[in-house]
């Protein structure tokens, strides 16, 4: 019985290590893409993004509108602001948490 338990523990550890390696590889790919995209974005937008991301509780600087509310703090977004976000004419931030708001179409393109 003790050997079986030890084998199960070793097996679970192997699974955890392999999943960690996959996540690490995926994270490296995303960091590489991020560095490539930083050359495209204007410096002032990049600085604002990094500041927002640093201050955000869960590290999300850009969130989508979900059920007429901010995807970060879940406060209701007024209809006029939602329309401005859908028009894509300027960058709109949540007046409560300061995160950048995007609509579902932007998220679907990713």
Sequence-ordered SSE layout with sheet pairings:
Blueprint lengths: L1 H37 L4 H13 L6 E5 L2 E2 L8 H9 L4 E2 L6 E3 L1 H6 L1
Parallel strand pairs: 1-4
Antiparallel strand pairs: 1-2, 3-4
In short:
The protein is 59% helix and 11% strand.
Number of strands: 4
Largest beta-sheet details: 4 strands, mixed
Report strand order across the widest sheet: 2-1-4-3
Please give the radius of gyration in angstroms: 20 Å
**Span from first to last CA?**
50 Å
Task: Identify the overall geometry.
Answer: globular
The proportion of residues forming helix, as a percent range, comes to 55-70%
Figure out the total of helices. 4
Structural class comes to alpha+beta
Beta percentage is: 5-15%
Low-confidence regions: none
Count of the domains: 2
Q: Quick check: average pLDDT?
A: 79
H/E element order: HHEEHEEH
Written description of the protein model:
It contains four helices and four strands; from the N terminus they run H-H-E-E-H-E-E-H. It has helices at residues 2-38, 43-55, 79-87, 104-109; strands spanning 62-66, 69-70, 92-93, 100-102. Strands 2-1-4-3 form a four-stranded mixed β-sheet. The radius of gyration is 20 Å and the shape is globular.
Task: Record keyword descriptors for this entry.
four-stranded mixed beta sheet, 110 residues, 4 helices, 11% strand, alpha+beta, 4 strands, 2 domains
């Amino acid at each position: 019985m003790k050997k079986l338990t030890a084998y199960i523990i070793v097996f679970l550890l192997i699974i955890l290590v392999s999943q960690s390696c996959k996540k690490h590889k995926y994270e490296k790919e995303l960091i590489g893409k991020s560095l490539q995209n930083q050359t495209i974005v204007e410096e002032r937008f990049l600085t604002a993004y990094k500041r927002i991301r640093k201050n955000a509780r869960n590290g999300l600087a850009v969130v989508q509108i979900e059920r007429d509310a901010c995807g970060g703090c879940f406060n209701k977004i007024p209809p006029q602001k939602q329309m401005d976000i859908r028009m894509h004419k300027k960058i709109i931030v949540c007046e409560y948490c300061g995160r950048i708001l995007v609509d579902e179409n932007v998220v679907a393109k990713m």
